[in-house]
Amino acid sequence: MRLVLRGITKRFGSVVANDSISLTVEPGEIHCLLGENGAGKSTLMNVLYGLYKADEGEIELDGEVQHFTGPGDAMAAGIGMVHQHFMLIPVFTVAENVMLGNESTGFAGTLDLDAARTRVTEISERFGFQVSPDAIVEDLPVGVQQRVEIIKALSRDAELLVFDEPTAVLTPQETDELMDIMRQLRETGKAIVFITHKLREVREVADRITVIRHGKVVGEADPQASNAELASMMVGRPVELVVHKDEPALGDDALVVRDLRVIDPAGHVQVDGISFTIRAGEVLAVAGVQGNGQTELTEALLGLQDDVHGSISLDGVELVGRSTRKILDAGVGFIPEDRQVDGLVPGFTIAENLMLNRSFKSPFVARGALRLGALRAFAEQKLREYDVRARDIDSLAANLSGGNQQKVVVARELSRDLRLLVAAQPTRGVDVGSIEFIHKQIVATRDSGIPVLVVSTELDEVVALADRIMVLYRGRVVGIVPADTPRETLGLMMTGERPKDLKDVVA
Amino acid sequence: MSTLTDQPTPESGGLAPDATVAPTRSAGARKLPVVLGVLTLGLGLILVLSSHSGDTTFQLAADTDFVALPDIVVPSGPTGWVMVLACLALTAEAVRRMLGHLRQPTWIPVVFAIAWMTGFLSWAAADNSIRVVSLFGGAVALAIPLVFGALGGVLGERAGVVNIAIEGQLLLGAFAAAITASTTGSPWAGLVSAAIAGALVALILGLFAITYFVDQVIVGVVLNVLVLGLTNFLFRQVLTPNAQTLNAPEGFDRVPIPVLGDIPLVGPIFFRQTALVYVLYLVVALVAYALYRTRWGLRVRAVGEHPKAADTVGIKVNRTRYRTILLAGAIAGMGGAYYTLVSVSQFNRELTNGAGYIALAAVIFGKWDPIRATLAALLFGFATNLQGVLSAIGSPVPSQFMLALPYVVTLFAVAGLVGRSRAPAADGVPYKQQ
Predict the structure, then answer these.
(1) Which residues numbered 152-171 in A keep a CB inside 8 Å of some CB on B?
(2) Residue A146 half-sphere exposure, CB side, CA atoms within 13 Å?
(3) For residue B423, what is the nearest residue in chain A, using CA coordinates?
(4) Cβ contact (<8 Å) for B301 and A89?
(5) Searching chain B, which residue's CA lies closest to the CA of residue A294?
(6) Does residue A474 belong to the interface with chain B, where contact is any CB pair within 8 Å?
(7) Average pLDDT, chain A
(8) What letter would DSSP give residue A265?
(9) A48 touches chain B (CB under 8 A)
(10) A452 CB contacts (<8 Å, ≥6 apart)?
(11) Which residues 6+ apart lie within 8 Å of A140 measured at CB?
(12) What is the DSSP secondary structure assignment for residue A342, as one 8-state letter?
């Protein structure tokens, strides 16, 4: 199926998310939409899928102009979408999810589950998916859930498939498998739109590349183009893709974690006997697929988990059993993985957000009252220092872009005398320019002799920042390896396999 | 990530396969032995502090059974103590399972409840007799509006709309049924108008909750108060002056079902009821079947769990919610007809007396499942009826305490005797399209 988008414009209030975007996708090709977070790629695809209504422009499929009033129409026209956040009902089985909205029924609307099972099995075998139709979706690993999404689209005879940031949640191995699936689909003549901001993937599968920036098409790029060329097109200026850092100046053991076990409220052991040490002036990066205990590990370090066993000692002081307040006062800085939920109060101003971790005493509080003058001066200074793009310090955090929000969080956490920095997903959903900046801040923190724990699901980020890498799988340490360990080895370790000749490096 | 943190669902029956699993130490496992222990202690204290001698008679037979079951006569005191021992044994088993990190099976609380109840009744009715048939039959009858209401609640919440307005739907249903059955002389017409009245309340709820994104709990409560005020006003201004023509409804008669009604014990309890009760059996079966086995049910559940996902496969979320909530309102409204067409036989102010809220509790206690919610409503009906039966035979329990019993049972039940339950994920969350 041939897709033509002509002059699509979509506005949200005064913000123009898509500005007259035109695009052609041919059958049997993988067309990459490359752009930063917030460039307008997902908006465009939601317009195509009938979720948003375009203010201007038209959608043409095989020469016919379409007027979608909802996703149902788009689906009926042969468009399938694999959403960034899976559109699956967690408590339903695979078969129920696949049939939903497209159910085959018997007498009086009775569900024909057998037909759905057969359909799932059939498609799953054709592409070698190995998905059981009766499995409950929430019990499946993320990679398999994604395949359910693909099966869902294929079961409706989609001719055009849109993959919206599909690799964000996958291990490197799963990503490779997904690339194979996409190639396979291309061979069968499907048209594929692949939305991503990861250059490596684009270069691997794309037949054509369209780059989008600030809601506009910047141009087409050659699949043979170098990473640097693609990145500068995407960002609009030359970008440093490599983090420059010197050899670490290692000090004494600063953070010592021994036999840490964290049990979540539901009774599952999420961190299962982890031991590691970080020396002063060193970055230990934690690699692993999301959900393998990283969240619980960082929360345990901050005293945010209730059921914690083992020992966490910072400069010889035991932290387990202390309140979060005391841990913060002991000099632990924390960049939480979800800034919207844990990092900021969206309805507070930038200035108010900057004092959240020091809301009890000086410099911002005296005798129970806020010292607004000191706060303003501090906020003005940080706004400049961290290049936060906002009207002024009274702007609400909710109105900032992801990158600027994250800079506020980083500014707050790095503005104290730290003894340890814990940075969880420090650049998730952040534009390339801000990534550069935040990475520099983290390296500067390390160079000032502070131990840093970085948690990231982006292998690129782990490799760029780490002095050593600790790989977690199902709450256990697979190994602690040097930063120059090959990516293939790291990818393998992220699936829980420990190469035989692997040697742990001890700081 | 949800796979690692969620509790096993009763449906899947197991733990997430990719989770590192420790023996489950969920709060429910600890709660059960504590609750059982307290109850056992309570029963023991009752027996010690206020001992009765004499015999207790349990009458099992009704007049027209195939075979007449004999009365069971037991000595009051010793029976009580035997049951305390039984309760102790069950508590011990629960403690053993808790210490061994084992699952607490359902049979423990069930058997415990039977033993405890037997012990309690043999004490309360010493030198007297308990008519078992009327104890349970009355419970079924009293539970009717609760079951209707709970089904209305289950349906609404499964579609993602919290139906706090059950109380209002019951009350307006009762009101409409009274007037219609009085003017037409047909209880069936009354039942239909009750359903329409309930749906009307649901429509207003839907308008605010679905279309205008108003907080559903607040709208629901306001609606309840509105219906209360409205019916009070109309009762005084319209019904009271015209009581003969407008508030003398033709009620449903008791219709024993042949054969089924003659089975000993079961027959008189379940199959010698009014037509409304048989309608209820049908509705329960239909809702349970439709919710899990039909396209309609699949879509309703999808919309209540993840409306956006439903939208992306072409399901009209808000239209589905409207339809479901209207149906829910109609079902709850039919429950209201029970008051004016069966139990009270005329409309009175504040007739439903909080039954809608108890039905809401049954929804939660029943884990948003139609069958379980029905059983929960039956339990609450039993508690209410027990109070009536005991005060009728002049038991030594103070009547004020007995009046509070249904609510105490409700509290205990909702507070988690059932362990953890999971509401539909999008329950109470309005769906906005861009």
Answers:
(1) 152
(2) 23
(3) A91
(4) yes
(5) B1
(6) yes
(7) 89
(8) T
(9) no
(10) A278, A282, A283, A284, A420, A421, A422, A423, A442, A445, A446
(11) A94, A131, A148, B3
(12) I
Is A136 close to B12, i.e. CB distance below 8 A? yes
Q: Are strands A64-66 and A56-61 parallel, antiparallel or unpaired?
A: antiparallel
Alpha-carbon dihedral sign for residues A233, A234, A238, A242? negative
Backbone angles phi, psi at B332, to 5 degrees: -60, -40
Which fold, A3-235? Rossmann fold (3.40.50)
How close B325 comes to chain A (CA, Å)? 19
**pLDDT of res. B419:** 55
Backbone φ and ψ for A270, nearest 5 degrees, come out as -95, -30
H-run or E-run covering A23: strand A15-25
Q: Residue B11 and residue A81: Cβ atoms within 8 Å? A: no
pTM for this model (two decimals): 0.79
- Could you read off the pLDDT of B229-271 as tens digits, one per residue? 999 999 999 999 998 889 989 889 888 888 888 888 888 888 8
Decide if pLDDT at B18 tops 60. no
Looking at residue A357, the DSSP 8-state letter turns out to be: G
CATH 3.40.50.300 domain range(s) in chain A: 3-235, 253-494
Q: Does A88 touch chain B (CB under 8 A)?
A: yes
What is the reported pLDDT for A331?
Answer: 93
Q: Once rounded to an integer, what is the mean pLDDT over residues A262-291?
A: 90
Name which of A73, A111, A136 is nearest B294 (Cβ-Cβ).
A111
CA Rg, chain A, in Å?
Answer: 24
In the predicted structure, residue B24 carries a pLDDT above the cut 50: no
Which range has the worst mean pLDDT, A38-47, A235-244, A311-320?
Answer: A235-244
Residue B29: partners with Cβ closer than 8 Å, 6 or more residues away: B97, B98, B101, B103, B104, B419
| ipTM for the assembly | 0.81
> What's the pLDDT tens digit per position in A454-482?
999 888 899 999 999 999 999 999 999 99
The interface residues of chain B toward chain A in range 244-303, judged by CB-CB distance below 8 A, are 290, 293-299, 301-302
Average pLDDT over residues A67-82: 90
Interface of A with B in 112-141 (CB under 8 A): 136, 138-141
The answer to whether B306 contacts chain A (CB < 8 Å) is yes
Q: Shortest Cα distance from A135 to chain B (angstroms)?
A: 9
What angle is formed at CA B11 by the lines to CA B7 and CA B17, rounded to 5 degrees?
A: 55
Alpha-carbon span A354 to B432, nearest angstrom? 32
Fold designation for A253-494: Rossmann fold (3.40.50)
Q: Do B16 and A138 touch (CB under 8 A)?
A: yes
Q: Which domains does chain B have, with CATH numbers?
A: 24-126 (no CATH), 133-398 (1.10.3470)
- Are B315 and A101 an interchain contact pair (Cβ–Cβ within 8 Å)? yes
Q: Is the minimum CB–CB distance between B425 and chain A shorter than 8 Å? A: yes
What token pair was written down for A499? 């190469």
Does A102 contact B at CB distance below 8 Å? yes
Partner residue opposite B314 with nearest CB, options A71, A110, A291: A71
